[in-house]
Design a protein that fits this description.
seven-stranded mixed beta sheet, 11 strands, globular
Length: 112
Amino acid sequence: EVQLAESGGGLVQPGGSLRRSCAASGVTCGTDSMAWVHQAPGKGPEGISSISASGENIYYTDTVKGRFTISRDNAKNTLYLQMNSLRPEDTAVYYCKTGSFRGQGTQVTVSS
């Protein structure tokens, strides 16, 4: 059974940072691309960043480029998202996904 266990969400002030983690089990992390998706209140899910199996190919949506950094440690079967310079408009539920599987999602709230 594939499971993606996330951690690292919460409340942060504008300009602050958070680091999200996504630990995969039941799947070999280094064989498939992985991604982070967010869903803001009242909006549909949006893929914000993805990383290839090897980590060589990385994509960011324009809204997070330069502020967020995706990475993976295939030895630990874990995906990361370092979120810096957070803005109120980054408030959303964030979840990781690989193939047809997704994590449970964690709320990130950026507010003073």
